[in-house]
TrEMBL record:
This is Probable tRNA sulfurtransferase. One of its GO terms (biological process) is thiamine biosynthetic process. Catalyzes the ATP-dependent transfer of a sulfur to tRNA to produce 4-thiouridine in position 8 of tRNAs, which functions as a near-UV photosensor. Also catalyzes the transfer of sulfur to the sulfur carrier protein ThiS, forming ThiS-thiocarboxylate. This is a step in the synthesis of thiazole, in the thiamine biosynthesis pathway. The sulfur is donated as persulfide by IscS. Signal peptide: none annotated.
Amino acid sequence: MKFDHILIRFGEISTKGRNRRKFIDRLKNNVRDVLTDFPNLEYQGTRDRLYIHLHNEDHEVIVERLKNIFGIQSFSLAIKCKSDISEIKEMALKAVNSVFQPYDTFKVTTKRADKQFPLDTNELNYQIGSHVLINTEDLTVDVKNPKINLRVEVRKEATYLTCYDFKGAGGLPVGSGGKAMLLLSGGIDSPVAGFLTLKRGVELEVIHFFSPPYTSERAKQKVIDLARELTAFGGKIKLHIVPFTAIQEKIQEQVPENYTMTSTRRMMLKIADKLREKQQALALITGESLGQVASQTLESMVAINDVTSTPIIRPLITMDKLEIIEISKSIGTHDISIRPYEDCCTIFTPANPKTKPKLEKVSRFESFVDFDELVSQSLNKVETIVITKEQKEKFDNLL
């Protein structure tokens, strides 16, 4: 049997009260954007569901894409029929037969959204289940742990029957929570931070600091590929590539070695905050995990954060490395992150970086250089690229 609809269920959106419609509209737009190459699809949104009429489009490809869209709790392949008990029973039998294997178990779960329908939920479960059971051999009922859970949603305009259920990505629709700027290195942590922020409905733009000739074009391509992986969860992403060589060289020249890491992070935040303001974003995002490296102690964060009053989101702050690695593998960024090309965070790494830097000291070290002028020069040379999932992969061409 051919399923003609996909039924999408909301999760956290359902708690949004008066603002629910805005979240649903945002989710619908995000789904449209992800499925833009399926022009025959038809969308219908209600207070607690989103329906996609497939019109003979390939549901297998659509299902795989829907799994990555934040704001979806679960979704199912569905059959639509009239809200008539005879037709519902016949469609239920066809639906079960399409997935049934000998000696499977099943149950019927009915949701009666149309309270004017002449049969209540228990009567519907009984009549539909009896019809399926009588007309199917080697099928038994198991209401606790069935192999097949036939869900029936009776609504005024139509009834929807589902057997195939898929888990959604959860979270909130991307774009419903404003926009923020992700500082994306070539490592494992920052792409995971971006993923987790997307899950909370925040639209991302990405900033990468590039220091040629100390960092290579392959390192740059690595970051482009990481950003592309994130587009599977949030659509197209703007990537801002900031030339950072002159600033890093000046830091190495003027700042004592054990403070160079602190000063480098401060300059990154200064530039990121200027870009945030220009792009009208509301926050900065980093992949910091408390105590993981010298620049991620509380004392370091105090000294580094001093250059901005902008909120800094740190989704990984309490995670350990193994937790972060597991997430990176699940979202497809891990193998890209471990490519052996250094970024500007790993070059010039001091042998003994300060783990408890003093704000007054790093401020004094920086006071002997006009870093504001160097920051302005970097901002004037920023390269911006719009990354989409459909772009041709470039990494292999560099080998």
